């Protein structure tokens, strides 16, 4: 099922729900640039574990119009609105890449509603004390996020300049694409077809204050990260593991940005246990 929600204070979100009253709901936060359709490669495992997916297009993607000046912390407002509309009181959150970052913010700002948090290959806050935020990041990522730090005009110019992003995918990443995670093309293509607005606003949100601190998260947190990731270096997860009070870090030494999602089924099993 797909629905459109009007947000408190204005704005609109396009949301998704696989249904199943009585099932454990997991709110999926998508990466950059993606639309928010929930992760099809994990549907079979979710059915086995009695999990219901809910998700949404972040503003600027798919059916959700842009919201100027949005922050990472705004994800908590969107999550609460979706859960309220569907009559869901408590839920887990999970995200990949920038979606992991938004999942962490949701957990931090909705402590009474979020029962477990999974961040796969997610970024740490830009003001993370003691973390060399840029170390180990590929040149393309540094260029894209540096433009975001300069502000909206510079970032929009960068995204329309024709510069190609080199993800520095590894053999493990390409193997993941071949083993089911080619699904990413189903969510990246429509996001890019809708223009650069969502990507611009995402990147600016990543490099400006989040409006929350991961140390605020009271729920159990699972951090999954590939040791060979050049999009988001694994040092980000290592920092988050020290910052989040109830965090578990699963570092995959030969994993990278896409292949880390092959641990997705194990992450769902972890959520099932953590939320019980």
Automatic annotation (TrEMBL):
Would you say which domain of life the source belongs to? Bacteria
Which intervals hold domain AB hydrolase-1?
A: 26-262
Query: What GO molecular functions are on record for this protein?
Result: hydrolase activity
Q: Which UniProt keywords apply?
A: Hydrolase
Q: Which InterPro entries does UniProt cross-reference here?
A: AB_hydrolase, AB_hydrolase_1, AB_hydrolase_fold
From the Swiss-Prot or TrEMBL record, give the protein name: Alpha/beta hydrolase
Q: Which organism is it from?
A: Phytohabitans houttuyneae
Lineage of the source organism? Bacteria, Bacillati, Actinomycetota, Actinomycetes, Micromonosporales
């Amino acid at each position: 099922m797909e629905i459109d929600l009007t947000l408190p204070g204005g704005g609109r979100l396009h949301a998704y729900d696989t249904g199943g009253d009585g099932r454990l709901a997991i709110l999926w936060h998508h990466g950059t640039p993606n639309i928010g359709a929930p992760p099809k490669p994990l549907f079979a495992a979710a059915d086995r574990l009695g999990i219901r997916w809910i998700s949404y297009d972040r503003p600027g993607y798919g059916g959700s119009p842009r919201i100027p000046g949005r922050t990472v912390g705004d994800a908590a407002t969107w999550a609460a609105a979706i859960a309220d509309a569907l009559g869901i009181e408590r839920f887990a959150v999970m995200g990949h890449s920038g979606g992991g970052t938004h999942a962490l913010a949701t957990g931090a700002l909705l402590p009474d509603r979020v029962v477990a948090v999974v961040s796969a290959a997610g970024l740490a806050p830009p003001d993370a004390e003691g973390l060399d935020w840029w170390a180990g990041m590929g040149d393309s990522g540094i260029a894209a996020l540096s433009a975001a730090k300069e502000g909206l005009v510079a970032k929009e110019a960068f995204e329309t300049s024709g510069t190609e992003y080199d993800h520095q995918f590894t053999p493990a990443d390409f193997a993941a694409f071949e083993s089911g995670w080619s699904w990413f093309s189903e969510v990246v293509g429509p996001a890019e077809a809708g223009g650069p607005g969502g990507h611009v606003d995402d990147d600016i949100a990543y490099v400006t204050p989040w409006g929350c601190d991961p140390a605020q998260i009271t729920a159990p947190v699972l951090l999954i990260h590939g040791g060979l990731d050049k999009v988001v270096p694994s040092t980000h997860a290592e920092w988050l593991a020290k910052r989040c009070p109830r965090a578990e870090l699963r570092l995959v030494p030969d994993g990278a940005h896409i292949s880390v999602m092959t641990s997705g089924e194990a992450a769902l099993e972890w959520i099932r246990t953590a939320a019980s």
